[in-house]
């Protein structure tokens, strides 16, 4: 159960109501601070719709963070969002295998993106991984990948700290791809 109330549009000043275009629990809790919600949403929207990295690879990176953090909210939401951007069920199964050091079907660049993302999650991408990724990405893409991984590290910590609930419509994703205990 969330540690702060989930607000509805009528609970907000008129100017802040657009912050609840998507009535997901994360946004409904975040609007307890409209300014933080606005800033948070701005970077999130940049990452989703303007970042210059391949959308499937971006979503795999976000899913990697959700998996490592054992974040039911992040994991379930980005399985759904990932499907919208080309992530397949086979990709998700391969991501799990890759995270556990098992053989999988991911292509080398996806494996490298996941490795770099795991390193960001652990504290910072190594020089070796950064250099290997630079062979495949522009400087702009490198920044966008790093910002994506770092932002979602913050997101999973916020989700856990605020105890944001997973909405019922996202539960089937957790049943299909359960997080380890």
Q: Class in CATH?
A: Mainly Alpha
CATH level 4 superfamily: AhpD-like
- Assign the structural class, choosing from mainly alpha, mainly beta, alpha/beta, alpha+beta, or little secondary structure: mainly alpha
Tally of strands: 0
Beginning-to-end CA distance, first to last residue: 19 Å
Instruction: Identify the overall geometry.
Output: globular
- Helix proportion range: 55-70%
Low-pLDDT residue spans = none
Q: Kindly state the mean pLDDT as a whole number?
A: 98
CATH topology: AhpD-like
Topology record:
Blueprint: H1 25-30, H2 34-49, H3 55-69, H4 72-84, H5 89-99, H6 108-122, H7 127-134, H8 139-162, H9 171-176
Helix pairs in contact: 3-4, 3-5, 3-6, 3-8, 6-7, 6-8
């Amino acid at each position: 159960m969330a540690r702060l109330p989930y607000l509805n549009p009528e609970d907000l000043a008129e100017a802040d109501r657009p912050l609840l275009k998507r009535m997901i629990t994360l946004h409904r809790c975040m609007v307890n601070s409209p300014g933080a919600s606005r800033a948070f949403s701005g970077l999130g929207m940049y990452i989703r719709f303007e970042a210059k990295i391949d959308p499937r690879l971006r979503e795999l990176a976000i899913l990697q963070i959700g998996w490592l953090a054992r974040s039911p909210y992040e994991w379930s939401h980005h399985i759904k969002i990932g499907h919208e951007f080309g992530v397949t069920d086979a990709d998700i199964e391969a991501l799990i295998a890759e995270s556990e050091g098992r053989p999988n079907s991911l292509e080398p660049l996806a494996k490298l993106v996941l490795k770099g993302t795991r390193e960001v999650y652990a504290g910072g991408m190594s020089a070796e991984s950064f250099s290997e990724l630079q062979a495949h990405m522009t400087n702009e893409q490198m920044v966008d990948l790093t910002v994506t991984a770092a932002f979602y590290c913050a997101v999973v910590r916020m989700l856990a700290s605020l105890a944001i609930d997973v909405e019922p419509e996202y539960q089937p994703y957790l049943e299909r791809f359960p997080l380890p205990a």
